[in-house]
Amino acid sequence: MDHLEQLENRSIHILREAYANFRQLCMLWSIGKDSTVMLWLARKAFFGHVPFPLVHIDTSFKIPEMIAYRDRLAAEWHLNLMYGQNEVALAERRTYPDGAVDRLTCCGLLKTEALRRTLSGEGPRYRFNHTTRTYERDRNTEPFTGVIVGARADEEGSRSKERYFSPRTTQSEWEVQDQPPEFWNQYKTEFAPGTHVRIHPLLDWTELNIWEYIGREQIPTVSLYYNHGDGTRYRSLGCGPCTQKVQSEARMPGAGMLEATPKSP
């Protein structure tokens, strides 16, 4: 068993533990490479079916190719997909592209606040209708208490102290002293009712592992990640006004690009 298989097995185990222990469970899907690998692992864990909702936070400023990719996979993989938005901030044009606030404040409004309200059920949720291929207002406002996210420990120093099952405060804040020990693949999955828990199947993965796995599994990812002949590509994806290309010749021809036909895991 090589290192990618070991990482894959642990991630699948964590996903199955999460599904077995959290009734109101969802997975965040940013459409980026990490969360798409996580989605692929979920399909493997449950034999091609993802038994919990995927939640995307739509700022309305995402690069159009990202949204097209999202909706295409939702339809082809029969995903239970919903998105949330900070409709008040958008209606009042309190955004960086509108010149009303700085980038950090804009992210706080369109991402952090929108995510909090979407997960809690206070904000609107729009669910993908597979018959009409459109989004409809979701009537279920029950809060999600288990949230699967694609955080990796190598992304920043504080994440090296994270747990696979990480409880948050009532304000959804992370407190290092409240993190439970996790020894010998034993995870604390029982928490007080209403506790918000973040679940991290990719915690042990590195960025290189992610790309190795995408290549090995031929996972279809957004083509913006790759050079199309002009010597540039996106290393990370986000809102169009704030996401810049980098100089790079990296390519992934055929499989792995948006135009590739997704295969079953």
The CATH topology comes to Rossmann fold
Strand content of the residues, in percent?
Answer: 5-15%
Low-confidence stretches: 253-263
How does the major sheet shape up? Answer: 8 strands, mixed
Number of helices: 6
Q: What would CATH call the architecture?
A: 3-Layer(aba) Sandwich
Query: How many separate domains?
Result: 1
Within CATH, the superfamily carries the name HUPs
Count the E strands: 10
Mean pLDDT: 88
- Whole-angstrom Rg: 18 Å
Provide the CATH top-level class. Answer: Alpha Beta
Structural class: alpha/beta
Description of the molecule:
Helices cover 30% and strands 13% of the residues. The protein is of the alpha/beta class and 265 residues long. The protein has a single domain (3-219), classed as Rossmann fold (3-Layer(aba) Sandwich). It has an eight-stranded mixed beta sheet with strand order 5-4-3-2-1-6-8-7. It starts with a helix and ends in an 18-residue tail after the last strand. Mean pLDDT is 88; it is low at 253-263.
